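STRUCTURE:
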């Protein structure tokens, strides 16, 4: 039984190096603090059309964009409802891709999995083999871009190129914890649906999920027997076309923050943001290899979350507590009971830069006596 623990409001500020939520700029936090307005006012149309069109521009996509109140998991569910009548192939290589399989099973779909050991990446040739050899007519294949539990970056571009050869099979990408910190050319690789949450590499307060939807996926939903109401592509996109607003009441303050942060992101640009994240990732890997090891398979390390193998047998939980206590910085243990002490994770995403990551690794070295 959980008991109430009164929120006191009295907590020290901590710098976040976890795989989301991550650090949010002060002016973005401040943007939320405004008198409320109605979601059917003209002002809402200004706000929503601005964030949608700015997002398309930032991502360089001609596909449609939905910004919906909820977290990324909403689109894990609605993508399946909107695109899959029967068979779906879910590639799994860690906790979040396994969640995608659970979600699809829960929705009553016929789920096949292409499973990889945690730490390994999904390979396009295996996807091809499965598509060629399976008797199932898959309505969709899913893949996580960045498996936050293991720090693996899957080659979704190559996987998308394979799936593009199967025009009746839609490709769904979970880009939570990657998008905005790891460049992806969405339109060039047959990606029908790609979704993220804003509290990750977009560096916004949580509360919104973003979904990029191809024309084909929109059309497919029209024929689907199980399309989602709340997360229906059609409902959101048609409402946008007619009114430039959302179909139901959105988290307006978070959208105000989104507008502000997306302007910063546009100013930096998708490419430059990618470069800054690459630099942080390379630095973190080099540091990790000097003191520990990297958990992911070589060549598939994430650009936004490093999962570090605890080869020194440090007490991960104790180190995290001490770094938090002494330096007011928070990083993550390994995921779940499987990786809890065997690995630890550093989120180098959003507003961080190489210098701020170095401040964390210095703190870990100090506390762990490396
Ligand atoms: C890869 C991945 N997918 C999905 C999710 C779920 O996102 P949300 O908590 O926004 O629903 C997460 C959260 O960490 C994630 O890292």
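SEQUENCE:
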């Amino acid at each position: 039984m959980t008991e109430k623990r009164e929120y006191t409001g009295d907590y020290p500020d901590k710098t976040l190096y976890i795989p989301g939520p991550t650090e949010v700029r002060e002016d973005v936090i401040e943007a939320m603090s405004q008198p409320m307005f109605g979601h059917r006012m003209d002002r809402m149309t200004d706000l929503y059309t601005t964030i949608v069109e700015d997002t398309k521009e930032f991502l360089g996509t001609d596909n449609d964009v939905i910004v919906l109140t909820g977290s990324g998991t909403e689109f894990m569910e609605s993508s399946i409802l909107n695109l899959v009548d029967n068979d779906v192939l879910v590639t799994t290589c860690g906790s979040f891709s396994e969640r995608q399989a659970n979600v699809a099973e829960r929705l009553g779909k016929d789920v096949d999995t292409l499973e990889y050991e945690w730490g390994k990446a999904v390979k396009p040739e295996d996807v091809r083999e499965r598509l060629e050899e399976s008797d199932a007519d898959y309505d969709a294949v899913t893949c996580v871009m960045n498996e936050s539990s293991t720090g693996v970056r899957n080659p979704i571009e190559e996987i998308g190129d394979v799936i593009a050869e199967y025009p009746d099979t839609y490709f769904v990408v979970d880009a939570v914890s990657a998008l905005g910190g790891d460049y992806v050319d969405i339109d060039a690789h047959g990606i029908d649906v790609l979704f993220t949450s804003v509290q990750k590499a977009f560096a916004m307060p949580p509360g919104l999920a973003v979904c990029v939807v191809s024309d084909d996926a929109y059309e497919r939903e029209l024929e689907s027997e199980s399309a989602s109401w709340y997360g229906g592509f059609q409902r959101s996109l048609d409402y946008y076309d007619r009114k430039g607003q959302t179909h139901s009441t959105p988290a307006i303050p978070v959208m105000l923050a989104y507008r502000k942060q997306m302007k910063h992101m546009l100013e930096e640009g998708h490419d430059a943001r990618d470069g800054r994240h690459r630099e942080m990732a390379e630095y973190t890997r080099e540091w990790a290899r000097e003191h520990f090891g990297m958990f992911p398979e070589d060549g598939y390390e994430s650009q936004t979350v490093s999962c570090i193998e605890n080869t020194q047998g440090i007490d991960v939980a104790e180190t995290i507590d001490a770094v938090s206590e002494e330096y007011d910085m928070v990083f993550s243990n390994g995921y779940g009971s499987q990786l809890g002490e065997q690995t630890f994770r550093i989120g180098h995403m959003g507003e961080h830069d190489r210098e701020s990551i170095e401040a964390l690794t210095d703190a870990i070295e100090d506390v762990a006596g490396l």
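REMARK: The CA atoms of residues 244 and 346 lie 38 Å apart.
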